[in-house]
Design goal:
Layout: E1 8-12, H1 17-28, E2 32-37, H2 40-47, E3 54-58, H3 64-78, E4 83-86, H4 102-130, E5 134-138, H5 152-172, E6 178-183, H6 191-197, H7 216-229, E7 233-235, H8 241-262
The structure holds nicotinamide-adenine-dinucleotide.
Amino acid sequence: MELTRIRHALVTGGASGIGLGIVDAFAERGIAVTVADIIQERLDQQFVMRGENIMPIRLDTRDREGWIEAKRTAETRFGPVDVLVNNAGIGPDGCEISEMTPDSFDKTIAINLTAVFNGINAFVGEMKARGSGHIVNTASMNGIMLGLARYGAYAASKFGVVGLSEALREELEPHGVGVSVLCPGPVLSNMPETSRLLGNPAPEQRWPDGTVGMEPIVAGRIVLRSIELNLGHILTHPNYFPAIDHRNDVIRQAAEIEQAEWASLPGWQG
Ligand SMILES: NC(=O)c1ccc[n+]([C@@H]2O[C@H](COP(=O)([O-])OP(=O)(O)OC[C@H]3O[C@@H](n4cnc5c(N)ncnc54)[C@H](O)[C@@H]3O)[C@@H](O)[C@H]2O)c1
């Protein structure tokens, strides 16, 4: 989608970290932004003096009624939403699956995956009818690389966002609506603090030794350029691609063993 055609973007989780970087990237191109976040104090801190073109609203993205109200408020102020960024999320809870509480698992899936559906659900019908728009859903490298220990619920949620986004992209392509899944590598943010504030038991953010996180505004500019190019997958760190290859290698090795093994099973036809 050409950036000159974007008049209004709505970004969830926009009061901090990557979401804030995306908000700033839209703002520096003169695009009006509705910023939706669950933490009111952060909205107050970040957006008090930001000018007419940014409207902060409190929204818990799990709340489907809240989405209807948020959409109404946003569109009353700035007109139809051209770009929806479902970015709000919490981090891994640091627990092995054997120790994870059902509440923690449910919360991670509710915020990181089901709430992404909620956002899509609120806007997709009108975008389809208009024949224009773009949806960006934030997953993670943890949604496309091999699952890591103590990242179980987080990886499950992020793999879910990748699958949802890929399917949505195929569905919306004939209607002129773009879909991208954002898979960030390390980006500076408040993720452990957010996760703690929202009740995760032992927030954890595991980056390779010596990693310096990317500035959020850079991630934001990457997102805008990717919308312009209509990229399906946005990797902030394309140099991490070998991690995806590694997962494919592991699966390929299994397939090679299976190809030989299953051949000896009665009835198997490959
Ligand atoms: N920072 C990284 O290195 C990194 C890497 C991969 C993926 N991600 C993903 O990027 C997204 C943004 O995370 P971040 O690192 O910028 O963290 P962050 O904690 O700085 O920002 C997340 C924001 O989302 C908001 N939020 C959380 N739950 C919400 C809800 N239910 N409704 C509305 N707002 C809610 C928080 O209040 C916070 O302001 C997340 O989906 C995260 O999983 C981050």
